[in-house]
Amino acid sequence: MKLKIAGYKPISLIDVHGYPSFALWVCGCNLRCPFCHNWRIANADRKVCGEAELGELMVKISKSVKFVDYLHVTGGEPLLQVEALRELFSKVKSLGLMISLNTNLTLASELERLLKDGLLDHVATDLKVPFDIMSGLGEKARNYWGEYLKSLELLRGYEVTLELRVPVARGITLGALGNALREILPLLKGLRKSYCVEEVVVSSGA
Ligand code: SF4
């Protein structure tokens, strides 16, 4: 089986808070965030993306096993390739590594499949507010926001750590941010562990 990827870093000290990881960037995304710094990867640009056999990836990951605690998969939106991820994560778990997934949380069914199989230890996501602008989806954003809330709800049922990042757009009001936080706060309760690691100022393009 193959995974469409843009690249990897054998040892990263910044992708999982407090742990060294093997970081892997996979291609394609269902959102179009105007602040995306990985937009070529999100667009699956052929100049930066190519297919990799899982076996080849396993050889590379195996070489890092002594030095890292996690395989961290980011993108793009990794859950668009959930079948390949399931296979890769199962193999990586057998090496004794934990799995971290950076996701926009808008593909709840795909997320649930990985959770049910016990393949996730750490999930990192952005809280994009206001979601319609920050996701680049405008009026189509409502369904995706519903998926985001559903995904947070799902995470409560599993032993998974959530890393929540809050990109703050120029012009966003504290009121809008507060409303979004109030909406998700009940969903964060009951998680094994959750933390907010960064706050960045970006232009929303709005
Ligand atoms: S969800 Fe992430 S990868 Fe996708 S467009 Fe937004 S910032 Fe970029």
Can you describe what's shown?
With 206 residues, the protein is α/β, with parallel strands linked by helices. It has one domain: Aldolase class I (TIM Barrel). 34% of the residues lie in helices and 30% in strands. It has an 8-stranded mixed β-sheet with strand order 3-1-2-4-5-6-7-8. Helix 2 packs parallel to helix 3 and helix 4 packs parallel to helix 6. The N and C termini lie far apart (40 Å). The site of iron/sulfur cluster has 11 residues, from loops.
How would the blueprint of this fold be written?
Elements lengths: L1 E15 L2 E8 L12 H4 L7 E4 H11 L5 E5 L7 H12 L4 E5 L5 H9 L5 E5 L4 H4 L6 H15 L5 E9 L4 H15 L4 E10 L4
Parallel strand pairs: 2-4, 4-5, 5-6, 6-7, 7-8
Antiparallel strand pairs: 1-2, 1-3
Helix pairs in contact: 2-3, 4-6
Number of strands: 8
Give the overall form. Answer: globular
**What's the helical proportion of residues?**
25-40%
Q: Give the ligands present.
A: iron/sulfur cluster
Strand order, main sheet: write it out. 3-1-2-4-5-6-7-8
Instruction: Return residue spans where pLDDT drops below 50 for at least 5 consecutive residues.
Output: none
- CA radius of gyration is 16 Å
Structural class: alpha/beta
What is the beta-strand fraction?
Answer: 25-35%
Q: Count of DSSP helices?
A: 7
Mean pLDDT: 91
Q: Quickly give the CATH architecture.
A: Alpha-Beta Barrel
CATH topology: TIM Barrel
Question: Quick recap of the structure?
Answer:
With 206 residues, the chain is α/β, with parallel strands linked by helices. 34% of the residues lie in helices and 30% in strands.
